[in-house]
């Protein structure tokens, strides 16, 4: 009996100790829950129908709730007390808060979406504030519609009505299309988020777009004409659908056949690249030459018809084309003639070589000579002529001796050297004794 009583007392003591430990643990947890929570205040210009208990989300995941909503600054702003779970706390400066709506048709269920600031920014202490410049209030559908004027509302109503007609009976394909557009829409949401983040750049974009639209509106007639021309061109292309389909079908084989040619062209371009590099210095001069050639091209307009008539004209044997046709016959006759002429010239070469040094004397005798040769001289009285008679062995036979008063008369001078009709000059440049020519330099004239 005493043993059972001792065990019962021991069990009751252990149960009481466990109960006390549980109470102490609950008190600690409650104290931590009330004193260790992380809270921030977000200042909005419009609370947008947010109420106590609405969720606070980061990236679509709930991380807290709205503890209180109150007006500050004389009712011109709203202050939202937000409690954040420990996993996302603490927030950092640069955190933005936006009031959002789960859907356009939902008038309740608002939530606060947070975009945390960079981790290297200073922390926002518990009880700190997210200022107005980092918060964005919600824009309700009613506010958007009320900002539109009546013509825009009627046009929007017509668009909605037309969309209903277009989507009638096509729910499943439309749903599939929307499902396929989900990635693009998600990226669009991210893009609009970035636009909303950089307000200055967005204002610049809107201003530039406004100027662009104004410029386009000032050229509405040109745009209309271009649209009509494009419509006409597209209709013409649609009318040639079969031919266009055939051309598209033929394109792959044609491209396959063109591949070797394109490969050759690539090799050709690689080979011509050094030449082009060498020609680069000439390009600048060519750019100056081409404008100067423009006046010549205007004169070519008058020359080209005559040149065309010279090359080809109606009739027979009256243009360059007919002459070229005759060339084979002329060649048949001219080739033997050229052969004979070659032999003749070869036989005449020794004669020409012998006569060549006397060409000046021969020319002087024909042009200004008297009896064979003459020379012009100058003294104090002006110009006078020295005449030298050149004759054959019997030129003076039977004539009286006429040496008196006429200077020296020499006979038998049959091997004069070139320039020998005159007396030798001081530099001894005459008479000229060419090689391989038989002449006597002693038969030169004498000084007066």
Mean pLDDT: 75
Helix and strand content put the structural class at alpha/beta
The SSE string, one letter per element, is: HEEEEEEEEHHHHHHHHHEE
Radius of gyration: 58 Å
Concise account of the structure shown:
The protein has 448 residues and is α/β, with parallel strands linked by helices. The protein has 10 helices and 10 strands.
Please characterize this protein's 3D structure:
β9 (372-379) and β10 form a beta hairpin. Residues 27-35 have low confidence and may be disordered. With 448 residues, this protein is an alpha/beta fold. Among the domains are: 37-144, no CATH class; 334-395 and 403-448, no CATH class. It is 54% helix and 14% strand. The strands form 2 sheets. An 8-stranded mixed β-sheet has the order 7-1-4-3-2-6-5-8, with no helix packed on it. It has a two-stranded antiparallel sheet with strand order 9-10.
Explain the layout of strands and helices.
Blueprint: H1 2-35, E1 38-44, E2 55-58, E3 61-72, E4 77-84, E5 96-100, E6 111-115, E7 128-130, E8 135-136, H2 141-146, H3 150-167, H4 171-180, H5 182-197, H6 199-218, H7 220-239, H8 241-311, H9 320-355, H10 359-367, E9 372-379, E10 382-389
Parallel strand pairs: 1-7, 2-6, 5-8
Antiparallel strand pairs: 1-4, 2-3, 3-4, 5-6, 9-10
List its traits.
448 residues, alpha/beta, 8-stranded mixed sheet, two-stranded antiparallel ribbon, 10 helices, 10 strands
């Amino acid at each position: 009996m005493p043993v059972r009583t001792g065990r019962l007392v021991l069990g009751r003591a252990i149960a009481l100790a466990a109960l006390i430990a549980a109470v102490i643990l609950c008190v600690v947890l409650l104290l931590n829950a009330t004193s260790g929570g992380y809270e921030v205040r977000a200042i909005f210009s419009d609370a947008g129908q947010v109420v106590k208990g609405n969720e606070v989300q980061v990236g679509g995941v709930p991380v807290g709730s709205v503890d209180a909503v109150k007006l500050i600054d004389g009712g011109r702003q709203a202050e939202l007390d937000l409690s954040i779970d420990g996993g996302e706390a603490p927030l950092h400066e640069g955190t933005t808060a936006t009031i959002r709506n789960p859907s356009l048709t939902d008038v309740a269920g608002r939530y606060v979406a947070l975009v945390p600031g960079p981790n290297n920014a200073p922390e926002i202490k518990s009880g700190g504030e997210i200022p107005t410049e980092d918060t964005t209030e919600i824009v309700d559908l009613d506010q958007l519609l009320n900002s539109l004027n009546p013509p825009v509302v009627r046009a929007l109503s017509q668009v909605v009505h037309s969309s209903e007609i277009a989507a009638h009976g096509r729910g499943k394909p439309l749903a599939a299309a929307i499902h396929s557009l989900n990635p693009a829409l998600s990226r669009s949401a991210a893009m609009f988020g970035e636009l909303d983040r950089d307000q200055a750049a967005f204002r610049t974009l809107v201003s530039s777009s406004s100027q662009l639209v104004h410029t386009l509106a000032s050229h509405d007639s040109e745009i209309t004409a271009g649209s009509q021309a494009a419509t006409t061109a597209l209709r013409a292309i649609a009318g040639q659908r079969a031919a266009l389909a055939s051309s598209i079908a033929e394109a792959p084989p044609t491209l396959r056949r063109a591949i070797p040619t394109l490969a050759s062209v690539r090799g050709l371009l690689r080979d011509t690249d050094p030449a082009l590099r060498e020609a680069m210095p000439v390009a600048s001069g060519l750019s100056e030459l081409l404008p100067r050639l423009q006046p010549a091209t205007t004169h070519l307009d008058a020359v080209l018809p005559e040149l065309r008539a010279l090359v080809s004209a109606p009739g027979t044997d009256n243009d360059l084309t007919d002459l070229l046709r005759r060339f084979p016959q002329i060649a048949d006759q001219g080739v033997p003639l050229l052969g004979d002429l070659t032999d003749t010239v070869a036989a005449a070469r020794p004669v020409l070589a012998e006569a060549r040094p006397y060409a000046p004397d021969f020319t002087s005798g024909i042009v200004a000579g008297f009896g064979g040769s003459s020379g012009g001289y100058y003294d104090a009285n002006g110009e006078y002529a020295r005449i030298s008679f050149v004759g054959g062995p019997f030129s003076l036979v039977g004539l009286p001796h006429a040496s008196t008063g006429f200077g020296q008369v020499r006979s038998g001078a049959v091997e004069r050297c070139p320039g020998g009709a005159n007396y030798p000059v001081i530099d001894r440049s005459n008479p000229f004794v060419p090689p391989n020519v038989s002449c006597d330099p002693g038969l030169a004239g004498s000084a007066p």
